[in-house]
Amino acid sequence: MKVLVAEKIAQVGIDILKKDFEVEEKLNILPDDLLECIGEYDALIVRSGSKVTKDVIQRGKNLKVIGRAGTGVDNIDLAAATERGIVVVNTPESNNISTAEHSIALMLALSRNITTAHMSLKEGIWKRSAFRGVELYDKTVVVMGMGRIGSIVASRLKRFGMKVLGYDPYIPDSKFEKLGVEKVEGVDDVMKRADYITLHLPITKETRGIIGARELSLAKPGLRIVNCARGGLVDEKALLDALKDKKIAGAALDVYENEPKEVAGGGVFDNPFIELDNVILTPHLGASTEEAQQNVGEAIASQVSEALKGNIVNAVNLSGLKVEDMAMITPYLNLGEILGKLYYAVDRLPIKRVEVSYCGAITKEETKLITLSCLSGLLGSIMEDRVNFVNVEMIVKDRGIEVVESTTSAETHYTNLVTIKVTNKESTIEFAGTVFGGREVRIVKFAGYDVDFVPTNHMVAIYNIDKPGIIGHIGTIVGLSGVNIATMRVSRNGDNDLAIAIINIDSHLPDDALQELQRVDGILKVQRIDL
Length: 531
Fold this sequence. Notes:
Blueprint: E1 2-5, H1 11-18, E2 22-25, H2 31-37, E3 43-46, H3 54-59, E4 65-68, H4 78-83, E5 87-90, H5 96-111, H6 114-122, E6 140-144, H7 148-158, E7 163-167, H8 173-179, E8 182-183, H9 187-193, E9 196-199, H10 213-217, E10 224-227, H11 236-244, E11 250-253, E12 279-281, H12 290-308, H13 326-346, E13 353-360, H14 367-380, H15 392-398, E14 402-408, E15 416-423, E16 428-436, E17 440-446, E18 449-453, E19 458-465, H16 470-480, E20 485-492, E21 498-505, H17 511-519, E22 523-530
Parallel strand pairs: 1-2, 1-3, 3-4, 4-5, 6-7, 6-9, 7-8, 9-10, 10-11, 11-12, 13-14
Antiparallel strand pairs: 13-15, 15-16, 16-17, 17-18, 19-21, 19-22, 20-21
């Protein structure tokens, strides 16, 4: 498989990828060139400079993974990637410390006029009185965005003796209490109380322009604003006017609404903020430390590599699922996929409802992943497009299929049991399975029959009247077709005279053998199962 690295990552990341994949580096590739070549690659790695648009994703016919070396993914069309079943991964924790430290460095530099004082001395002018600053001690700072980076910033600013407040409508009160940070409920209150604001919010419809002209009009005269998060959180025109009119004391910006693309020799930064003395500007340096770049490169390469190998990763478009013990859950993902595949092996009617239920210790794990495995196995066999964890919920919703997940404490013969009931317009068909010894998948219910067999790639299910001679006929016909029988498990259906035989065979059963089995007196139905 081929990986395209479109923006620079640390060499350690390239080395990880090269162990298993063909890697090509086309750094800072132009949009038209990316569109032209993306069809060749199974994975794409970008930073913030490349736009992975819907067109790019549609042209990427082989794309399985998109890796964003960094935190945000606003330069990637997540909806288009999800629809195509493309896993999107990022490295949300690799540059946390670096970005937090840069925010605090800018706050300090802004408070003590470090950049303007430095330039004054570079020009040979000694004028101490022009650069009188302010202390952070005892000032009120509002951290807007109390996620990973914001929490680090809040914790460290408390050690400066600042009064630290936090604003984040999506973080529970318990986290504010744990951090010892007072929660501010609204942006207006933020503006009225803050001596400093440091931004650590994602860019969304709700947060874009969260600080605009109206909000700035409410600010304290001495307010200083630091933004190392995303350009567009602060309305740049409104901020420019407020700084010019001295309505606020200063701003330090590391991110901008429009950032030049990095090219050889450097890009051109044309921004009206450069004319102001009460602004500090840096070129998106939040993650630009040796440690962060090593961490990001290693993390994104590992994520992309695992995803390409078909392993579960903590993808951006996997609903934020977190799996603590992957070794525990992996066999159940395989079980779920097999249980899903069994339905279309025995029936072809459109599905109305799917119920997946769990019993035993497995209920303490991330069962939603197993449910997604069931759904992927269920629909993957009837769709031409890729169906996987990423897009199966969207596909199910589009098809109007009701999905119910439940757990039960009912006693069973098994330590863990996964049951799937598929309802169509005529009936409900039930399958169930478990995992023995932490690895071996076993099917213990097949279309309502109590069974016990290990699923293999090729099987045959034979429903028959329970009478002597049937098994002999089956062995003879399958043997004469040149197919070897590995195992055969027979189960009766309660007290009636019906039985089912599940036969594991070494290869695909030919059509003529299938038809001959169907003609045997006493055999009611034959189903070929190729997983």
